[in-house]
Amino acid sequence: MPVDLTDQFIKFLRDEGYLVTRQRRRIAEAIFTTPGHLSVEDIQSLLRQRKVSASIASIYRTLDVLIKSGLVVQHRFGKRFKRFESIRQDQHHDHLICTSCGKVIEFKNNSIETIQLRVAKEHDFVITSHKLDIYGRCSKCKNRA
């Protein structure tokens, strides 16, 4: 899947008239090959581990293009917690977000999905998309003051 996403990104760059640079490719690959929700700092750290140099500004600019391409989604989990993840066509999930440390836990729950469909039907409403973000404290932070 990551190779396909990288290929799709390169095609998008070419089709839209952007330069296909090594740095853009490496930033995209880092996101596409890493599961979960990444901060810009996480992305920069991954790039350093891979011996790729990229400034925070370059990462943000590439993220803007990745979001425009539809291959990366930006999540805002409160003011301090902006995260990015690659698209996963068939893997809908919801989030538990720790308001202390910013940890994001993905979960799936068929009962919640069923309830949402039932509520929509009761109100003669067609769901086109949805997201569920639940805020609280993770197991490590729950006992802190």
Keywords summarizing the entry:
single chain, 145 residues, alpha+beta, Arc Repressor Mutant, subunit A, Dna Ligase, domain 1, 2 domains, three-stranded mixed sheet, two-stranded antiparallel sheet, 5 helices, 5 strands
Give a short summary of the structure:
With 145 residues, the protein is an alpha+beta fold. The chain has helices at 2-16, 22-32, 40-49, 56-69, 110-122; strands at 72-76, 82-86, 94-98, 104-107, 133-136. The mean pLDDT is 87.
How would you describe what is shown here?
The chain is an alpha+beta fold and 145 residues long. Helix content is 43%, strand content 16%. It has five helices and five strands; from the N terminus they run H-H-H-H-E-E-E-E-H-E. It has helices spanning 2-16, 22-32, 40-49, 56-69, 110-122; strands at residues 72-76, 82-86, 94-98, 104-107, 133-136. A three-stranded mixed beta sheet has the order 4-3-5, with no helix packed on it. Strands 1-2 form a two-stranded antiparallel sheet. A hairpin with a 5-residue loop joins strand 1 and strand 2 (82-86). The model has no long low-confidence stretch (mean pLDDT 87).
